[in-house]
């Protein structure tokens, strides 16, 4: 089960570099910071995961520029986030990153979430049925893709920070929701 993984020997910069409310780093600045803070860890034998972007279309270009600017950097894995309402689009997104960078992938956040109401899902958030179908399709895909090293859905919290509450994986009593149990047990029946 790729949902569970150990981070003791990994180094990564996890705040999204392409979002104004988060790191909002120029790829060159991210490369400079990598060379100063992350590359020494790689030199000590830590495996490294590239900075992550949101699934905003500029994310791929940002990481391509980062990789080009980060001369001599050791980058073992690529991290991706995906928020959208179409499972097939998420799968194609993962495949695009795999083929672009030829590195194993960590999907460190994903959810059936409509951040583009004028564009996706007729302006609606995912319904319960859509959330379940989305998770079933993408989890089954990631479990079968040997290039997806690990994945973790967004939502193991009580405050969903503006994300569709139907993606929530934790109840108010701190136990797993039915969706969490389905993901954890790979059972979407």
Protein model, in words:
The two termini are 18 Å apart. The longest helix is centred in the first third of the chain and has 17 residues, at 27-43. This protein has helices spanning 27-43, 58-69, 87-101, 128-144, 178-185, and strands at 10-12, 47-49, 78-84, 105-112, 148-151. Helix 3 links the parallel strand 3 (78-84) and strand 4 (105-112). 37% of the residues lie in helices and 13% in strands. It has a 3-stranded parallel sheet with strand order 3-4-5, with helices on one face. The chain has a two-stranded parallel sheet with strand order 1-2. The chain contains 5 helices and 5 strands, in the order βαβαβαβαβα. The chain is an alpha/beta fold and 189 residues long.
What characterizes the major β-sheet?
Answer: 3 strands, parallel
Question: What's the number of helices?
Answer: 5
* Approximate strand percentage: 5-15%
What's the end-to-end separation, in Å?
A: 18 Å
Radius of gyration: 17 Å
Which strand order spans the largest sheet, edge to edge or round the barrel? 3-4-5
What order do the helices and strands follow? EHEHEHEHEH
Structural class: alpha/beta
Proportion of residues in helical segments? 25-40%
Low-confidence stretches: 1-16
Tell how many strands the DSSP assignment holds.
Answer: 5
Overall 3D form? globular
Mean pLDDT: 86
From the structure above, extract its key features.
189 residues; alpha/beta; three-stranded parallel β-sheet; two-stranded parallel sheet; disordered N terminus
């Amino acid at each position: 089960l790729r949902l569970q993984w150990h981070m003791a020997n990994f180094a990564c910069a996890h705040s999204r570099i392409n979002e104004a409310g988060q790191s909002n780093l120029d790829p060159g600045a991210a490369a400079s910071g990598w060379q100063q803070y992350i590359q020494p860890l790689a030199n000590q034998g830590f495996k490294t995961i590239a900075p992550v972007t949101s699934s905003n279309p500029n994310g791929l270009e940002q990481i391509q520029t980062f990789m080009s600017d980060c001369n001599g950097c050791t980058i073992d894995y690529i991290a991706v986030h995906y928020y959208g309402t179409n499972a097939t689009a998420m799968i194609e997104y993962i495949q695009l990153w795999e083929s672009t960078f030829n590195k194993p992938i960590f999907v460190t956040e994903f959810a059936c979430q409509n951040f583009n109401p004028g564009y996706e899902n007729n302006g609606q958030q995912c319904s319960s049925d859509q959330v379940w179908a989305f998770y079933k399709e993408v989890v089954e895909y990631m479990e079968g893709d040997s290039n997806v090293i690990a994945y973790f859905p967004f939502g193991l919290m009580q405050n969903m920070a503006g994300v569709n509450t139907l993606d929530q994986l934790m109840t108010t009593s701190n136990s797993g929701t039915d969706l969490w149990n389905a993901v954890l047990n790979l059972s979407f029946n």
